[in-house]
Amino acid sequence: MRPIQNQQNPLPISMWSEYDSFPISLEESLHLQPKKNLHFTSAESIYNPLVDFKIPNFLNIQTASFKHFLNVGLIEKLNTLNNMQNSDKRFEIYFYSEKYKISVPKWTPSQAILKRKTYNCQLYVPVQLTDLSTKQITFQWIKLATLPMMTKYGHFIINGSPRIIMNQIVRSPGVYFHQSVKDNHINIYSADFIAEKGAWLRLEVDPKTGAIWAKLKKTPKIPLLLFLRCFGVDFPVLNNYLQCKNLSKSYEKTAIDETILFQDKKQALVQLSKTVYPTIKPESIYGQMFLFRKFLNPRSYSLSLLGRARLNQKLGLCIPHDYTFLTGQDILFACLFLLDLVNGNRNPDDIDDLKNRKVKPCGELIQMQFQLGLSRLEKHIFEQYKQIPYKKLVLGNILNSTAMNSSLREFFGTNPLSQLMDQTNALAELTHKRRLSCLGPGGIQRETANMAIRGIHETHYGRICPIETPEGQNAGLVNSITIYAKLNPSGFLETTFWKTYKGHILNNKDPLLFDSDQERDAIIAPGDMKCNDLNFLPKSNSIPSRKQSQFQLVSREDINYIALSPVQMISVATALIPFLEHDDGNRALMGSNMQRQAVPTIKPSKPIVGTGLESRVISDIGQAKQARQSGFVTYVDGNEVVVFSFVKRGMMKKVIGNFSNYDSESYLKSNVGKDLINTKPLKPIKYELDKFHRSNQDTYMVHRPVVQVGSWVEKGDLLADSSSSQQGELSLGQNILVGYTPWEGYNFEDAVLISSRLISDDLYTSLHIERYEVEVRDTQFGMEQITCNLSQSGLDYLDHLGIAKIGTWVEHGDILVGKITPIDQKPLTPYEKLLYDILGKKVPKTRNTSLTVPKNVHGRVIHVEIIETDSDFISKRPIKNQKQSKSNHFKFSHEIISNDYLKNQNQEKSIYDSIIDSKWQSYLNRDHANLDFSLRFGLDDRSEKSPSNLNLDSSKSYNRHSGVLKVHIYLAEKRSIQVGDKIAGRHGNKGIVSNILPRQDMPYLPDGTPLDLVLNPLGVPSRMNVGQIFECLLGLAGSYLGQNYKIQPFDELYGCEASRSLVYSKLYEARIKTGQDWLFNPNNPGKIQLFDGRTGSCFSQPVTVGKSYILKLVHLVDEKIHARSTGPYSLVTQQPLRGRSKQGGQRVGEMEVWALEGFGAAYILQELLTIKSDAMHGRQQLIHSILDNKPLEIGTPESFKVLIRELQSVCLDIYTSQLVGKFGKRAKLDMVQLP
């Protein structure tokens, strides 16, 4: 239990510059600084009016962990390499880890994405090499690694793709006691020593003899007394403990059998070596080596400080906390504890209890991989010791960054916990960063996980959401952290509670943080209890509470703590569902998951009925732009927003006067600045806006300005919305008018009927950006070329380089990048030469390998990126006749490269590298705090270098003489909703669009408003997600009243049937204020008489109608519809491949065969199972049979041949034969000869 420091934090806006990596401040980004404690200026929490407490920052788990890695973990791991000596102890290496430095990242996050680079920095460590024989000391700064840096929003950028490191939840180091039952109902008792690093040890009681054995992986089992004796525990000591615990009878047989064998520790080590190494001569040294390698080597075994503390606490030991190895005392006391468990005096441990499971955040996982890289570096150092002569032994030859870089590259590229970030929408990104996974290295195997591991535990309350988890194989293995959950320094999940005293909630003090072990003996009330104005619980002896996983009814005086909020037990995505308490848990799970699959539309709309967390999601994830300082907006366009702010705060608005009447910056600086006393002149702050960037899931990311020139903004105010927000709130769908009624069978089961208004008004039109890539390589026949000189006509949309111009509309087959590839020149025969001369054509020397638009794709070119991989530099070409903006910035079009310019840049890069290597220390010792980073090293800022000096001959084709050139074309495609698309609500109510009706044919309200969506009413009672009914009715009232609502889940604390009362009261209010009596009918509350749009007649029964928030999911029919005529076949089965991406076929399974058999479609069935599948001869002869009007030759399917071969392989005499001769004699036929 620990109190929360309830500090006054600013709004959650980022104070970092664009060039700022996650842990470096703006000042440090201009020059290298010594490592120091890093502090964050973004907010840790923000006040939510629905709960009387500040919700912690949703990304704090990711960012705080990486900060701890840089401040503490990195230094700890570097210290493990100190005092390394070679074999003859002549040289020694020492790392000054506390003085390490990190350089400025070469790219900003946005540049790294566009250029397909990694957002990283260089890690430099001062290293000292000492010649112990001559006492000569060499000091040098060494580039130890290229470290990927976390952005300020908690993710990494690896090779141009945003990635995240998932939090892993594993068993905490310590000792655990188990009791299991075999098939023959025999109890098996065991104790497991789990180390943070190294081998796991198991002590197991033999159910037949009662003896205790020590077991390790790939090692024979060892008698416990032998094991204890090797650790230095004498038998009299063990006997005394057994006598004190009255356990001597339990261990009497084993004790008598073993004491005769081992007289001292040396003999015990000899016997141990004989047991573990039966093939070699037993000696005590081998036994000692075995113990050292398994349990006493600091490089291969460690219990960690946490593991030692838990061992001491559980076994009652007093071993120093910094001794992280296994001792004989640990094993001895675990043995006594195990015997108590056998006798029924103790209970086994619950491995699913959160007190026994710790979370490894991203910083700890990177730290473990960093340790692996250091071990590889150590091995490399010792190899260099042996290979390099003493006279040539210098630090530059011994140390390099290859080992560390390969280790980090392996982790970020192949580790299953390093995943491509889900960027479908803002909620998907936030949820992905707050995930907990039991999988991964050191975790649980998906195939062996049982229901106990996947289930919900009572200690999950307030820490792990019981609802949000994937469906399928990962159910229960991947979870989400709740809203108020935090990680303590040991890695255990904590949640917050208010202290109560005699029924009074002490919310004037800071709340307390509890892990699952600390709250075990407390009586805790839930957060949905109704309190009076003085914060007293109701006077009752039946207040629901829980203690030690037991639910009970107690009086208010017995309550010790109470939860902060009703939403404390659920995750962010689940808390976004209004009226959650009225939904079945399975449907709430689907609703939580499907919100993450919602595609951002081009006209986002915030929900009428929300929960109050919508704005927190957008602010914490950082997709919207917020003002860093108060000031006036002086310039707004699609590229940037400029705000003029004063350095010091306290500006009086009356001094400014009518600023909107003046559009001159000079007036601001001359007049307004003079009138302010003790205030510096106005300073412009520019906020760069994203212009239709592509996400990992091909959805679009953009900033929409929401401020106007002349408006005043305060610190934290919204400047620009994102693609998933409106007015700073999460907006994933649209508020549309829905009705629950059958309609001509078009909404049977989960089908839905929609109006054409959704298409014409672009309510569900989404924008998808796809990237297409082409490479220019140096082939064996010559260099490929990008050119516009192609033989095809109609290529006016290509520029002089042969690349599609920005803004061009392209469709299937259009050329995006014109490219030709040289081909092999074969000698022509005289007849071929004569033919070319007659036709007047030249012998082709190249072939057209241009990049074209794929099938079923059409869109507009929005961006072109040209990347040369050798220099990693992109020059920019300005648009002609581009006017200069007020911000005095140049506007650039798509990029081109000049060979001469790239050559100069390569030379400058080599100069830069030489400075880093040879003169690093001298530059660091100088005071260049006020100089730009690039100027310190004699380089111009490449990102702002004027492109006017580029020499480019537009008449020539473009090629490269070294390296690989890549061209990326970005196409934007608008996709309207259509039949086959999947839509869903927030309550797990999902369906497929079955038909699109004209709006005049849709059922309409008494005021003539047609419905937008018709749902099946049978989808509500069986699914038990009644929350959608409350939402649609309240949304209807809000649309007519012009109100938005924030509904806190679990609102029954305000009274019985609170949801129903609220909905009916708002409908009645809408009826009174609008004069529409049909909005609320007391006889049929919530139901309205509808009229058929085709006939004008009314339906026979009133229908439930309302405004629901409906999402369009990423499962679009355009990406799923597929047809195949011919295509690739599997070499093994000769059947068509599976999958749309492989141009595969559709599987005709067992049930499909039954259906065709039921209709008697014999010939269709024959074709599907033969020539359309794996009848090789038949499909080759098919085209000839059709053209010659001959009967089809089906042939023998390959699957039949495989079946015969399988039967023959099990010695069954089965063969094929044919009738030969006049009398039809059967003759065996080889399988190969079958047609």
CATH first level of the largest domain: which class? Alpha Beta
Question: How much helix is in the residues?
Answer: 25-40%
What spatial form do the alpha-carbon principal axes imply?
Answer: globular
CATH topology of the largest domain: Rna Polymerase Beta Subunit, Chain: C,domain 2
Distance between the termini: 79 Å
**Total count of helical runs of at least 4 residues:** 30
Poorly predicted runs are: 6-52, 649-665, 671-679, 870-963
Strand percentage? 15-25%
Number of domains: 6
Mean pLDDT: 82
GO cellular component, one term: DNA-directed RNA polymerase complex
Catalytic activity: RNA(n) + a ribonucleoside 5'-triphosphate = RNA(n+1) + diphosphate
EC number: 2.7.7.6
GO molecular function, one term: DNA-directed RNA polymerase activity
Provide a descriptive summary of the structure in words:
- It is found in: Plastid.
- In plastids the minimal PEP RNA polymerase catalytic core is composed of four subunits: alpha, beta, beta', and beta''. When a (nuclear-encoded) sigma factor is associated with the core the holoenzyme is formed, which can initiate transcription.
- Keywords: DNA-directed RNA polymerase, Nucleotidyltransferase, Plastid, Transcription, Transferase.
- The protein is an alpha+beta fold and 1235 residues long.
- It has 6 domains: 2-163 and 362-427, Rna Polymerase Beta Subunit, Chain: C,domain 2 (Alpha-Beta Complex), CATH 3.90.1100; 180-353, RNA polymerase Rpb2, domain 2 (Dna-directed Rna Polymerase Ii 140kd Polypeptide, Chain: B, domain 3, Alpha-Beta Complex), CATH 3.90.1110.10; 444-571, DNA-directed RNA polymerase, beta subunit, external 1 domain (Rna Polymerase Beta Subunit, Chain: C, domain 4); 755-763 and 979-1118, Beta Barrel (Dna-directed Rna Polymerase Ii 140kd Polypeptide, Chain: B, Domain 6), CATH 2.40.270.10; 767-975, RNA polymerase II, Rpb2 subunit, wall domain (OB fold (Dihydrolipoamide Acetyltransferase, E2P)); 1122-1233, RNA polymerase alpha subunit dimerisation domain (DCoH-like, Alpha-Beta Complex), CATH 3.90.1800.
- Helix content is 25%, strand content 23%.
- Strands 1, 21, 22, 23, 24, 25 and 28 form a 7-stranded mixed sheet that branches. It has a 6-stranded mixed barrel with strand order 41-58-42-57-56-61. Strands 4, 5, 6, 7 and 8 form a 5-stranded antiparallel sheet that branches.
- The N and C termini lie far apart (79 Å).
- Mean pLDDT is 82; it is low at 6-52, 649-665, 671-679 and 870-963.
